[in-house]
Specification:
The chain is an alpha+beta fold and 271 residues long. The protein is built from nine helices and ten strands. The chain has a six-stranded antiparallel sheet with strand order 3-4-5-8-7-6. Strands 1-2 form a two-stranded antiparallel sheet.
Length: 271
C-alpha cells in the first residue's frame, strides 16, 4: 500500500479496516458515498478518497463505477498443506493457485554470499529472476531467485512466467533433499516497496531459503519479501521427551492470509 497520507487519512483507513476485518462490516456491504462518509466523520472528501484508495489497494473493498463501493467477499481459496519432504509438489501447487509477474530474467555472476550458499565457484553463473506473486489482484510477495546456470538453462523466460520455479526444477530432473530457511523482519527498500505497493520503510517479512540436492549441491537460493498484512507464521508445538526432560518441539508452518479476509480454518499454505 502506498503512503496513506495525512494522519486523519490513516486513522480513517484503520477505522474501516478494523470494522471490515472484525466482521462488523460484512462482505457485500455497500459503503456510504464519499460525501456521506465525509459529513458523518467530519472529514474532507480528499481524506475519505485517499483512505478508500488504500483499502482498495489492499483488497478490502471493491469499487464498482456507477454502482458503489462494497466490502470484498470473504471467501478464501482452498489451502495447500505443505511439509519439507514434499516441498516441490506443495510449493508448485501454491504457485498454480496464484498469479505471477516476471520482472527480470537474466544470467550473471551471483553476489559472493549467494555463490557461497549454493557452493559455487568464483566464475560460476546463475540464472537470476525477479517476480511478484499476486493473490487475486493484490501483490503479496516479491521474490528474487538464483539457480545454477546448468539448471537454469533447462527452462526459458516464458516458462518461468507461467510455471512455478520449483515445478520447473523438478522437470529438469533435480531432486530437492534439504533446505535451510531463515525468517526475519525488515523494512521495505525502494524496489520491494514499489513491487508490493507499500510505502518505503514499511515493515516486511523477510525469508531466505537455500535448497540443496542429495549430494549437497545448491539448487536454488530464494530471497522473498512478504507483506505482513497478508502473510502470517503459525507455530504448532508437540510435547515430547520423558519425565523432567519433556519439552515442546515446535514445527513452523505458514499461512497466507488474503488482505481483508478471514484466515482459512483448516490447512496451511507454504511460502
Amino acid at each position: 500500500m502506498d503512503a496513506i497520507g495525512t494522519s486523519k487519512t490513516h486513522q480513517f483507513y484503520l477505522l474501516l479496516k478494523e470494522r471490515i476485518t472484525s466482521g462488523a462490516l460484512q462482505p457485500g456491504h455497500r459503503l456510504p458515498s464519499e460525501p456521506r462518509l465525509a459529513a458523518s466523520h467530519n472529514l474532507s472528501r480528499i481524506t475519505i478518497r485517499r483512505a478508500l484508495d488504500g483499502l482498495s489497494r489492499d483488497g478490502l473493498i471493491l469499487r464498482k463505477p456507477g454502482t458503489g463501493t462494497f466490502v470484498r467477499d470473504a471467501a478464501v481459496a482452498s489451502a495447500v498443506v505443505a511439509d519439507l519432504s514434499n516441498m516441490l509438489a506443495h510449493l508448485a501447487a501454491m504457485g498454480r493457485a496464484t498469479r505471477v509477474k516476471l520482472l527480470d530474467f537474466s544470467y550473471g555472476a551471483p553476489p559472493p554470499s549467494i555463490a557461497e550458499a549454493l557452493k559455487l565457484g568464483r566464475r560460476d553463473v546463475t540464472q537470476h529472476a525477479l517476480r511478484i506473486r499476486y493473490l487475486d489482484d493484490t501483490p503479496f510477495s516479491y521474490l528474487s531467485t538464483h539457480v545454477p546456470q546448468a539448471i537454469g538453462k533447462t527452462y526459458s523466460r516464458k516458462d518461468l512466467a507461467v510455471t512455478p520455479l520449483l515445478e520447473l526444477l523438478e522437470r529438469s530432473g533435480v531432486v530437492a533433499s534439504t533446505a535451510s530457511q531463515t525468517i526475519s523482519a525488515t523494512l521495505a527498500g525502494p524496489e520491494a516497496a514499489a513491487a508490493l505497493g507499500v510505502a518505503m520503510g514499511s515493515p516486511l517479512l523477510s525469508l531466505v531459503r537455500v535448497v540443496l540436492d542429495g549430494n549437497g549441491n545448491g539448487i536454488e537460493h530464494l530471497t522473498a519479501f512478504y507483506r505482513p498484512d497478508m502473510h502470517a507464521f503459525r507455530m504448532e508445538m508437540k510435547r515430547t521427551g520423558r519425565g523432567l526432560d519433556r519439552y515442546w518441539r515446535p514445527t513452523i508452518d505458514t499461512e497466507i492470509k488474503p488482505a481483508g479476509r478471514r484466515p482459512a480454518t483448516s490447512g496451511r499454505r507454504r511460502a
